[in-house]
């Protein structure tokens, strides 16, 4: 009953006129950037991070969560109508979703995606309400050794498990960790890697790096490479934007299975929603093969329903892991963790004690966001698709101006603008050579936590490294990480063997 009463207090805070406005605005912005390929929720949060410090923390995080959820709602629209997914999390939805559109069922495909995202996100929000406080209480048992193990798990999983090339993922992670150690050492007070420049004594701003690699790097990529690529033709959506009873009965088991598959991945630092969406799609395809009349390859509604539910359930649980453990499982979550720290807040058990109004208002806003997103996506998907008609040069020019204004507004330093340009060029080169960006961001966000935890653990044990393996929690984390790595290695070896055959 305490949880329900706290949730009701959260609804009282989230349903104020001011916070309701930020929920709706976040949902609109998230859907808009989700529809347009190459943008995504991580870029939107990175761009808005410098200009939202004037807001109250509750309002800012309510808007960020709306953007996070809305990005997944909008990602599949491009994939269904143009066979070009907005983000990697929507790739699995594209396979059968676009085939539905080609067969004249585009409205039903868009409705299936919207309802699946709603179900996955809503169920995850219910689980988070009851699960996050328990997880936060459990995290009080974490010491420096356990937090180091958790950070190491996130580093290895995001850099080697979910990337096509483990080498590129680890190099991206190393770059992020390298950026994180620039500045004055908090323990010794000695400048590190500053080249005696006073501009670097405070370190390199995470806001500058995220805006540079996610937004400015994408702008440079468009200006030099992407604008020469032709895009597919968007299919028109005509007919009823809802599902019949037979279609609902067909899709419902897939929605529920996809939701169940996505929930655990919200607390596993495995790169976000990409893995669970493919797992959900694969599970439905295996079940379809047993049917007397297989539908996959012809526009199977279950092949679209399951990945959409899995993606949003993962995102919902990711917010719970972020609040309870301070553990980001994706690039967007990592940026939100940085935003918490910019406001002087540290996610974890202390956040539930010191800022309960923020936590429970944010949790209540998840439910409101799901309803708002269903309302603005179910009947109006084709209206959002018209955003694709915006000339790309105008769109990316506006993003460039917003990058510069946002960074200059937070620091007032010309040096930060030069840093923005330099890191943006690095982000463009990484994108050109297919280096993942999420390990860089997570390395920069969790690098200080890993370093301080390692130091504290070794100091408390007089330099004895065995303390890192002394507790059951840290041993369990290392064991799970080893199993994940072995399974990933086996999967890659098997797939390579099949290609050779």
Automatic annotation (TrEMBL):
The chain crosses the membrane at residues 20-39, 46-69, 109-135, 147-163, 169-187, 199-223, 261-281, 321-340, 360-381, 393-409, 415-430, 437-454, 466-489. Keywords: Membrane, Transmembrane, Transmembrane helix. Pfam families: TctA. Residues 20-442 form the DUF112 domain. InterPro entries: DUF112_TM (IPR002823). It comes from the Bacteria. PANTHER family: TRICARBOXYLIC TRANSPORT PROTEIN (PTHR35342). This is DUF112 domain-containing protein. It comes from Kocuria varians (Micrococcus varians).
């Amino acid at each position: 009953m305490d949880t329900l009463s706290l949730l009701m207090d959260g609804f009282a805070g989230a349903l104020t006129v001011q916070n309701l406005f930020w929920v709706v605005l976040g949902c609109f912005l998230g859907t808009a950037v989700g529809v347009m390929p190459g943008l995504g929720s991580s870029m939107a949060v990175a761009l808005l991070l410098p200009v939202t410090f004037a807001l109250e923390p509750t309002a800012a995080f309510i808007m960020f969560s709306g953007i996070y959820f809305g990005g997944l709602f909008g990602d599949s629209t491009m994939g269904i109508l143009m066979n070009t997914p907005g983000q990697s999390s929507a790739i699995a939805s594209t396979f059968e979703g676009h085939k539905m559109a080609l067969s004249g069922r585009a409205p039903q495909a868009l409705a299936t995606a919207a309802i699946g995202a709603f179900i996955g996100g809503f169920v995850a929000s219910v689980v988070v309400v009851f699960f996050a406080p328990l997880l936060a209480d459990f995290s009080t048992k974490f010491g420096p050794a356990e937090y180091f193990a958790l950070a190491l798990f996130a580093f290895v999983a995001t850099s080697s498990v979910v990337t096509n090339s483990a080498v590129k993922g680890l190099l991206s992670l190393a770059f992020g960790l390298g950026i994180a150690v620039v500045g004055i050492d908090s323990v010794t007070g000695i400048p590190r890697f500053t080249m005696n420049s006073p501009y670097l004594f405070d370190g390199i701003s995470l806001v500058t790096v995220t805006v540079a690699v996610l937004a400015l790097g994408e702008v440079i990529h468009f200006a030099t490479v992407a604008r020469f690529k032709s895009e597919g033709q968007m299919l028109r959506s005509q007919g009823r934007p809802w599902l019949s009873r037979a279609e609902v009965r067909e899709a419902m088991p897939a929605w529920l299975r996809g939701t169940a598959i996505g929930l655990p991945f919200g607390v596993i630092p495995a790169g976000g929603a990409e893995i669970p969406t493919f797992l959900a799609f694969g599970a439905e395809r295996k079940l379809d093969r047993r049917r007397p009349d297989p539908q996959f390859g012809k526009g199977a509604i279950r092949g679209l329903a399951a990945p959409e539910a899995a993606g949003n359930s993962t995102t919902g649980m990711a917010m719970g892991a972020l609040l309870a453990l301070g553990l980001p499982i994706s690039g967007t979550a990592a940026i939100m963790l940085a935003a918490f720290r910019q406001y002087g807040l540290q996610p974890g058990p202390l956040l539930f004690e010191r800022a309960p109004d923020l936590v429970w208002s944010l949790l209540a806003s998840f439910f409101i966001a799901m309803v708002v997103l269903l309302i603005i996506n179910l009947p109006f998907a084709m209206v959002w698709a018209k955003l694709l008609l915006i000339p790309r040069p105008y769109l990316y020019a506006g993003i460039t101006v917003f990058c510069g204004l946002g960074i200059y507004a937070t620091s007032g330093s010309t040096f930060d603008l030069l840093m923005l340009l330099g890191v943006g060029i690095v982000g463009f080169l990484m994108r050109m050579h297919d280096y993942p960006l999420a390990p860089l961001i997570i390395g920069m966000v969790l690098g200080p936590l890993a370093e301080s935890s390692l130091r504290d653990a070794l100091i408390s044990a007089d330099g004895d490294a065995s303390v890192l393996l002394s507790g059951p929690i840290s041993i369990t984390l290392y064991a799970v990480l080893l199993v994940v790595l072995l399974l990933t290695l086996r999967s890659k070896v098997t797939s390579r063997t099949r290609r050779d055959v």
